[in-house]
Write a structure and sequence with these properties.
By secondary structure, this protein is of the alpha+beta class.
């Protein structure tokens, strides 16, 4: 008998249906030579400190650092989990072969491996590796089953991540709580490998805002033929200087010195990875990162979209032949897909690039016709579907007009943008968020100007004040986590920085939610604001390793390299142990020991 183990009952049901297993039992489905069972996410977890030593049960500075000689796992203490594990154990102990059908990612690998370790599996194990739950994908996955040994590096990376989080979280939380809280307080200072540098980003931004001192300045502009021109050198920190220039051009004619026109192309936006989808959903609809993740996970389980926990915006070459069929399935968008299906689809490196795809490709529709969706699912699916269609549409062709003018020796300039052929932008016509982006991009059409023309104008000197940095929103915080605190708009540069991002696409939403739950930050409208507790915690932490997004990003890069077989997992754990030991020594020797009141 072949035992298949999935990550959720709903996924197990889909797999069983394809395999021809229809006989339902308590905790599994059987038929056609298969027994299909499931976990509920994690059934096992790393052992608690007290499981290693009774001395570690109570919190004391003298017991730190807690570094087990060997890490072990245990079942999560829950009756439902214990019952399901016994069913899985009974099936696996009699199995001729086991197929790991867990989610095709680091976490999915870890969940199932721990269950099999706890059972003590002896029979051969194979791996189902699929990117969608459509019948076609499941059949193809079973036809091309892979050996579990191929995913050893993936498992080791997941294990190192879990051990790293345990070592730092368990030790640093006890260390800072016992060392710095007031004696009569029950406050626990939760420290995490990812959550602490993320909180530091928010706290540091708030400090920049609080410490910001606005500076007054004046801008010189003039209105000619109902168009506002800006002076090329028209920013003054001294009002008198600006006024003198204003007086010198008042009553003098404005002359157009040059009219330049240049055509340009705007490529369609990249396909979605999880982070960019969360960013767009937050910007457009105000959805939290957690809401978007749950929704796109649901769409995946309903077979409408592909595997969501991805960090690439590219597709592999083998997806190209399937794209026409996917487009045909998007019937609500037939007015946009029909022109594409009349000819051969575009294939470019901006969409298809094997070198940019490892285990999974970008999030795209599966081609299953959408139906029975909730309102939030409709909105998220619509974003994924339109983005997928848009990448095959032609570029948006626009014309940029730059008009230069002069009054006496003072030079002025204005730039306007005119859409000649909207191309892919047709998919977003009427979209208010897109219209807002156009306004932000200064996409205004100018009247026709002729070089040498001149006439009266109305100069003005406007008082302005420098503005503080903007608070984080979930969208901008996700981007900052993705790029280890560096702020970039360029797609290529952002791709390079992803290597050193903090957290993984699948965990960043949970980190943000954790910071809310622990009262370290709160949401004020769309802005993220640190609480008093969050600010004070950051003030207590002197060790930059815990707070630096960049340094945490380096650890994240090493985990990725372990996954690729380019870094030794034992060396990584050794470095973490050294870091934790050094942290304990540093904090214990801190004589300031300022306690929160």
């Amino acid at each position: 008998m072949t035992v298949c183990i999935a990550e959720k009952p709903s996924v197990a049901k889909e797999i069983a249906e394809v395999l021809g297993a229809h006989e339902r039992h308590d905790g599994y489905i059987e038929g056609n030579g298969y027994q299909v069972t499931w976990t509920f996410g994690h059934l096992c977890t790393l052992k608690e400190p007290a499981d290693y030593s009774p001395l570690w049960k109570s919190w004391s500075l003298g017991s730190l650092p807690m570094i087990p000689p060997r890490f072990g796992i245990k079942l999560i203490d829950d009756k439902g989990i214990e019952k399901q594990f016994k069913i899985i154990e009974s099936l696996m102990q009699k199995a001729d072969c086991i197929i790991n059908c867990g989610d095709a990612g680091q976490e999915g690998e870890l969940i199932q491996r721990w269950v099999m370790q706890k059972v003590g599996v002896k029979c051969p194990v194979e791996r189902l590796w699929i990117s969608s739950l459509t019948e076609e994908s499941i059949r193809e996955g079973f036809k091309n089953r892979r050996q579990q040994s191929e995913f050893q590096n993936l498992y080791e990376a997941g294990l190192c991540r879990a051990i790293g989080d345990w070592l730092l979280g368990m030790n640093a939380t006890r260390l800072y709580t016992l060392r710095y809280r007031s004696r009569d307080s029950r406050q626990i200072f939760s420290i995490g490998r990812v959550q602490t540098p993320t909180l530091a980003l928010v706290v540091n931004r708030q400090k920049e805002i609080d410490n910001f001192k606005p500076e007054q300045y004046w801008e010189l502009k003039t209105v000619y033929r109902d168009v506002r021109f800006s002076a090329v050198k028209g920013r003054f920190t001294n009002q008198a200087e600006g006024q003198a220039v204003l007086d010198s051009i008042s009553g003098k004619p404005f002359s157009v010195t040059q009219v330049g026109k240049k055509e340009g192309k705007e490529y369609p936006p990249r396909l979605f990875d999880l982070t960019s989808l969360q960013v767009e959903c937050n910007k457009k609809y105000g959805f939290s990162a957690e809401e978007t993740l749950k929704t796109i996970q649901s769409l995946y389980e309903k077979k409408f979209t592909t595997y969501p926990r991805v960090d690439t915006t590219f597709l592999s070459d083998d997806i190209y032949p399937k794209c026409p069929q996917i487009l045909k399935g998007l019937t609500p968008y037939s007015n946009f897909t029909a022109p594409l299906l009349e000819k051969k689809l575009t294939k470019t490196k901006r969409i298809f690039d094997n070198s940019k795809v490892t285990d999974h490709h970008a999030i795209i529709p599966t081609g299953v016709a959408p139906s029975g969706m909730t309102d939030i699912e409709k909105r998220v699916f619509d974003m994924v579907a339109r983005r997928f269609i848009a990448v095959f549409w032609p570029e948006c062709i626009f014309s940029t007009t730059t008009v230069s003018g002069k009054v006496e020796k003072v030079e002025f300039k204005v730039t306007g943008k005119e859409i000649i052929d909207p191309g892919w932008r047709r998919l977003y016509e009427g979209d208010k968020s897109q219209e807002k982006e156009k306004e932000d991009d200064d996409e205004k059409t100018l009247p026709t100007f002729t070089q040498g023309e001149s006439g009266p104008h109305k100069p003005e000197l406007a008082e302005k004040w420098t503005q503080p940095p903007k608070p984080y929103t979930e969208a901008t915080l996700l981007r900052a986590m993705e790029t280890a605190g560096k702020f970039v708009d360029n797609d290529e540069l952002r791709d390079a920085l992803k290597e050193n991002g903090i957290g993984r696409p699948s965990t960043r939403a949970a980190i943000i939610e954790t910071l809310y739950k622990r009262d370290y930050m709160k949401k004020v409208r769309k802005n993220l604001v640190p609480t008093r507790t969050g600010i004070e915690l950051m003030e207590l932490i002197h060790d930059n390793l815990l707070k630096s997004a960049e340094l945490t990003g380096i650890w994240e890069k090493k985990l990725r390299e372990i996954e690729r077989g380019k870094y030794n997992s034992a060396q990584f754990i050794g470095e973490l142990k050294d870091m934790v030991s050094g942290l304990v020594r540093s904090v214990l020797s801190d004589n300031s020991a300022a306690r929160l009141q």
